From TrEMBL:
<dbReference type="InterPro" id="IPR005546">
    <property type="entry name" value="Autotransporte_beta"/>
</dbReference>
<dbReference type="InterPro" id="IPR051551">
    <property type="entry name" value="Autotransporter_adhesion"/>
</dbReference>
<feature type="domain" description="Autotransporter">
    <location>
        <begin position="34"/>
        <end position="125"/>
    </location>
</feature>
<dbReference type="InterPro" id="IPR003991">
    <property type="entry name" value="Pertactin_virulence_factor"/>
</dbReference>
<dbReference type="InterPro" id="IPR036709">
    <property type="entry name" value="Autotransporte_beta_dom_sf"/>
</dbReference>
<dbReference type="InterPro" id="IPR006315">
    <property type="entry name" value="OM_autotransptr_brl_dom"/>
</dbReference>
<dbReference type="Pfam" id="PF03797">
    <property type="entry name" value="Autotransporter"/>
</dbReference>
<dbReference type="GO" id="GO:0019867">
    <property type="term" value="C:outer membrane"/>
</dbReference>
<protein>
    <recommendedName>
        <fullName>Autotransporter domain-containing protein</fullName>
    </recommendedName>
</protein>
Length: 147
C-alpha cells in the first residue's frame, strides 16, 4: 500500500475556547488478492483513493483544581472523494466497479483528559454519511502513560 497524507491544523485562540481549521488531502493506492476457504476469490486491480477534506474542530479546555485538564470537542468536516473506477474481479466473473466518489459529511465528538503529567486518555465517537457511502457510528478510546 502506498499512501501520501497531508494534514494542516490552524489553532485559533489557544486559551479556553479553541477553534481549529483542518485541511487534509490523501492519495492511496492498493492491490489486494483474497482467496477464501470456500473457493471464492477476489482481486482488486488497483484500489485508489484521492480525497480532500475541509473541516473545523471546536473545543473547550477546562483546568480543574486538582491539576487535571479536560477538553471536550466537536468536529465537522466535508470530504470529497475523486476516484470513481476502482475495479474488483470476483471468481473470474468480470469486473465490478467500486465507486466511492462524491461528497460526504464527517461528524465527530470526543473528550481528552490529562489526569497527571504522565497519564492521559481520550474517547471519541464518529459518523460519516454521503454520496453512496455511510460509515456507521464508531468509537475509539486510548490511554497514554509516560514514564
Amino acid at each position: 500500500m502506498n499512501t501520501i497524507h497531508l494534514r494542516c491544523l490552524f489553532r485559533m485562540n489557544p486559551l479556553v475556547w479553541c477553534l481549529r481549521a483542518d485541511v487534509a488531502a490523501e492519495l492511496r493506492s492498493l492491490r489486494r488478492y483474497y482467496h477464501l476457504s470456500n473457493g471464492m476469490e477476489s482481486k482488486s486491480v488497483d484500489t485508489r483513493s484521492i480525497y480532500r477534506e475541509l473541516g473545523a474542530t471546536l473545543s473547550y479546555n477546562m483546568r480543574l483544581g486538582n491539576g487535571m485538564e479536560i477538553e471536550p470537542c466537536l468536529k465537522a468536516a466535508v470530504r470529497k472523494e475523486f476516484v470513481d473506477d476502482n475495479r474488483v474481479k470476483v471468481n473470474s466473473d468480470g469486473n465490478f466497479v467500486n465507486d466511492l466518489s462524491g461528497r460526504r459529511g464527517i461528524y465527530q465528538a470526543g473528550i481528552k483528559a490529562s489526569f497527571s503529567s504522565t497519564l492521559s486518555g481520550h474517547f471519541g465517537v464518529g459518523y460519516s454519511h454521503g454520496a453512496g457511502v455511510e460509515s456507521p457510528w464508531n468509537a475509539v478510546a486510548g490511554v497514554n502513560w509516560s514514564f
